[in-house]
Design brief:
Low-confidence stretches: 7-16, 119-128, 256-264
Strand content: under 5%
């Protein structure tokens, strides 16, 4: 009877496998074998296969150095495969599980890179869209990750590059605020325009776009007949930007001749 039962179970198992037609080729692989194959897939640019092996590694061997490295590589693979949300999810899991890991500086750098050059930014090579005109949410996320890296790991190998990118992001975020202020001004919302421009002057001191923000304050207050505020803004503009170009050209800037997607 025992032999009959065993035989029946074997037949049922074989039938089940044949009906689905899916057999996991990695079944029984060690953590080292899974990771070795994932690295080979990454080297070949086979991101989907690499992702599968890394996810299997994390699920089957959740403890140890291979599991830790799996999360690091999952973040990288998803970033390269233009899956930013999955990449950020892997980074968040890693930082929650291993807050003091030596690779945290790299993960912060990668988190900044994910939103620094999102997949949609590639289209700006064609459209010539200034990145400051896009939704600033990703830019702010990138800036926060880079600044966290700079503060926590000032001697990291990734920090010098993060500093340059953070400086560019400050200017770009400030420019986005000025685009909004200009939008308000051109539609007659002068109070909103002045307030948005004032925020740039206050929050982004030293950014080149502050010149335009001050000019928007001047013309907005003029439209509102707030002469004292207009004169105060003009005084600051003239002191910091003598012979400002905006007096002659107005708000219409010439087209941006460079594309930050190709920067760095």
């Amino acid at each position: 009877m025992a032999r009959i039962v065993t035989a029946c179970l074997f037949v049922a198992l074989v039938a089940g496998c044949s009906s689905t037609g899916k057999v996991d080729p990695t079944a029984g692989w060690t953590a080292e074998h899974l990771y070795s194959q994932a690295k080979e897939d990454m080297s070949s640019g086979h991101w989907e296969e690499a992702r599968k092996n890394l996810e299997a590694l994390e699920a089957r061997y959740p403890f140890g150095i291979y599991a830790q490295q799996s999360l690091i590589d999952q973040a990288y693979v998803n970033w390269k495969d233009e899956e930013p949300e999955q990449a950020k999810a892997a980074i968040d899991r890693f930082m929650q599980q291993y807050p003091n890991h030596p690779g945290t500086d790299y993960m912060l750098y990668l988190k900044g890179m994910i939103t620094f050059t999102p997949p949609s930014a590639i289209l700006s090579n064609i459209t010539q869209q200034d990145p400051s005109e896009r939704d600033p949410k990703g830019l702010r996320e990138s800036y926060e990750a880079f600044t966290q890296l700079i503060k926590r790991y000032p001697d990291s190998r990734y920090t010098p590059d993060a500093r340059k990118r953070a400086a560019w992001l400050v200017n770009t975020i400030a420019e986005n605020e000025v685009h909004v202020a200009q939008y308000y001004y051109e539609r007659g919302a002068y109070v909103a325009a002045a307030n948005r421009a004032q925020k740039v002057v206050t929050d982004f001191e030293g950014a080149p776009i502050v010149e335009k923000a001050l000019y928007i304050m001047v013309i907005s207050y003029d439209k509102l007949h707030l002469d004292k505020l207009r004169d105060d803004a003009k005084r600051v503009l003239d002191k910091n930007f003598p012979n400002s170009k905006y007096y002659k050209q107005g708000l219409k800037d010439p087209g941006n001749p460079w594309n930050p997607v190709n920067w760095l």
